[in-house]
Amino acid sequence: MELTGEALERHWLPFTPNREFKREPRLFVRASGMHYWSQTGQKILDGSSGLFTSAAGHCRPEIAAAVAEQLQTLDFTPSFMRGHPGAFALADGVAALTPKDLNRVFFCNSGSEAVDTAMKIALAYHLARREAQRTYFVSRERAYHGVNIGGTALSGMVKNREAFGALLPGVLHLRHTLLPENRLTRGMGASGAELAEDLQRFVQLVGEKRIAAVFVEPIAGSTGVIVPPRGYLERIRAICDRYGILLVFDEVICGFGRTGEPFAAASFGVTPDLITMAKALTNGAQPMGAVAVRDSVYRTIIDEAPGGAPEFFHGYTYSAHPAACAAGLATLKIYETERLFAKGRELSGYFQDAMFALQDMPVVSDVRGYGMLAGVEVKPGKAPGARGSELQARLFDRGLHVKTTGDVAIVAPAFIATHAHIDEMTAMLRDALAEY
To answer: What is the end-to-end Cα distance of the chain in Å, rounded?
Structure first.
């Protein structure tokens, strides 16, 4: 049955022009492997892994079976003062993929919650170290760190901030690294590492012992795929080390193989103190997020607390939900047994070649990419973002789903994709871009 008219009115869609959507709805009703199907029966190739969530492809029966079995065995247990075996098994599975020192895992329900959790961990850590004056956070222009209070304050995308004010005081923003000198550069650009020195300036501005943590997306994904310049992340790490500042990598998009390694920290050879994650943790089959924490940070908080009481007063009703843990465990098993991170790494060269070949289109102003993530930016139309929204709709009608932000089409195929899938995506992109 097609949903139209009144049937669409009650649901307020997120990050969506609701009036336009309800006049011309585009709905998915089914998914399998690399494809969605619309409510009109159209088969649509998924070029963005859902929302960077479904790296192993859609509707994996192994995950569905694990969730069904879990719900019939133990549907819910509180994580406050209680636990269940799946939570500990999944924490072990995640810790096996993170850098070796980041071996403590706190579960939540989304990337937004993971970011706010990481902010609280940073404050608790410095309080335990008798440096409670460290209340400043540093993020970057064009950053996206979710939509909770803390993450919105960290974010550097104006449309995510302007309706809500700063929300939290004491957040400083480094300049972004999207530089004209790196235009049409594949992978890491040669220019911009010196922008990390903004952090040194902030230390000099607010004081050597006032900044709690720096939040960085190794690749800024939601803003349109900004790959860090060579040497930039290393300089951020060095300044953090010099002044006792925690470094947090937001890997909600980059995590679980998107850059060719389990986490971008390994791809770029820079180890943070905390990593936030979500999305591909459960292949998108269940809502879940997590924070991986350096052992020394965990031990500082735990060991300084008095006995007999919670050491960290934070958590969610659905933290480590049994069904989400079952989905996560099944997902990690698929990643391992099917060698999906390696397959994504092997496919990434062909994928990047295909995306960068679009630079010959007159409407394309830039192409950026790394691993299985690319951004194709088009010249703006009558207003910033208008052409990107229009392009997304045109691609849907041709049979291709991609995420757009502003005037950037963000392409991030599942790791089960073939050369034929990449060719099909590229052909539909080229066909739609040729209309401009």
So the answer is: 35
